[in-house]
Amino acid sequence: MPEPPLVAIVDDDHSIRAGIQDLFRAVGLRASTFESAECFLESPLRRIAACLVADMRMDGMSGLDLHHRIAASGRPIPTILITAHPRDLTEARAREAGVRCYLRKPFTPDELLECVRGALLESHPEFSFD
Fold first, then answer.
1. Is residue 89 part of a domain?
2. How far is residue 42's CA from residue 39's CA, in Å, rounded to a whole number?
3. Which CATH number goes with the domain that contains 52?
4. Are 60 and 36 in contact (CB under 8 A)?
5. Domains in the chain: how many in total?
6. Residue 60 lies in a domain
7. What's the pTM value of the predicted model, to 2 decimals?
8. Tens-digit pLDDT profile for the chain (130 aa)?
9. Is residue 74 part of a domain?
10. What angle do CA 113, 114, 116 make, to 5 degrees?
11. Do residues 67 and 81 make contact, with C-beta atoms less than 8 angstroms apart?
12. What domain range includes position 64?
């Protein structure tokens, strides 16, 4: 059986990172967590991440800025932004930039998993999870 794709979780809130990581592992995904956008960008795991879940508002670089930076590098990663401070204008900018999903906290596990499924279906159609 092939190794599951890696989903990177970037959030400055430890409990959010841990909760999402537990959810992903429960459905058979590999998940790694990062406390900041900068930590993710410096990690060698960046090269193998199949999907990125990032908080919109963090100290330092925002989730949207991280998405832009990755896209500009020439190896875009399907990105899902999560936020406790939703703004319609920010959501419109995120979608215009190619962000796959923009989820408003609190979101359900099923909402997040549906976004991740869609992102992984394109790059890893052989992998399925429930």
1. yes
2. 5
3. 3.40.50.2300
4. yes
5. 1
6. yes
7. 0.94
8. 678 899 999 999 999 999 999 999 999 999 999 999 999 999 999 999 999 999 999 999 999 999 999 999 999 999 999 999 999 999 999 999 999 999 999 999 999 999 999 999 877 888 776 5
9. yes
10. 60
11. yes
12. 6-107
